[in-house]
Amino acid sequence: MAHKKGQGSVRNGRDSLSKRRGLKAYGGQAVTIGSIIVTQCGTRYSPGRFVRLAKNSSIFALVAGKVYFDQGGKRINVLPDDATATAIG
């Protein structure tokens, strides 16, 4: 038997960094083109008008405008500014 404890690794010395998921822009807040509105796992929030779902399920804005929610706060939309709306058509 050993008289001293060996210098093994600590079993519970690990802790992952938090991912900072959640809403990045709230209702009524202005966003620019490409701004991330939500980072999420899966589709807790679904994309609406003028937003898209990224590969990692983040939702980002396609146009500059203001964020608004509908369907009980589960669908995210962007209401475009006047200049952007005329450019899109």
Automatic annotation (TrEMBL):
Gene3D superfamilies, per the entry: 2.40.50.100
Region of interest called Disordered, as start-end residue ranges on this chain: 1-21
Gene Ontology CC annotation, any one: cytosolic large ribosomal subunit
Entry GO MF terms: structural constituent of ribosome
Xref: InterPro entries: Ribosomal_bL27 (IPR001684)
One example of a Gene Ontology biological process annotation: translation
Keywords for the protein's UniProt record, in alphabetical order: Ribonucleoprotein, Ribosomal protein
Protein family (similarity comment): Belongs to the bacterial ribosomal protein bL27 family.
PANTHER family per UniProt: LARGE RIBOSOMAL SUBUNIT PROTEIN BL27M, RIBOSOMAL PROTEIN L27
Protein name: Large ribosomal subunit protein bL27
Gene source species: Gemmata massiliana
